Amino acid sequence: MVIYSLRQSPDGDWSIRRDSATLFSQLRLGPAIQLAREAARDEHTRSGRSTCVEMPGPSSTIRLAQYARPGMPIESAVA
User: Fold this and answer.
1) In whole angstroms, what is the distance from residue 30 CA to residue 35 CA?
2) Mean pLDDT by 10 residues, the chain (79 residues)
3) Which residues have C-beta within 8 Å of that of residue 75, sequence separation ≥ 6?
4) Residue 4 and residue 55: Cα distance in Å, rounded?
5) Deepest in the core among 6, 29, 65, 71, taking most CB within 10 A?
6) Where on the tree of life does the source sit, at the highest rank (predicted)?
């Protein structure tokens, strides 16, 4: 499972990360969510691998999008 994660900086901007690499930064929340979903969907389409988009919530991680091949079980993500 490839995980795209949203992270908020101390100044309130958002970044999109894949593993430990920051792909995009200094975004507002709405555009960050849209861009992360687009990147995850594109990777899934190109590679066929399961992908998801997550962001931190008040008490746990919130999964915002998930892409998997039909018939394949969804893997749980561990960050």
Assistant:
1) 9
2) 96 95 97 98 94 95 89 53
3) 1, 50
4) 9
5) 6
6) Bacteria
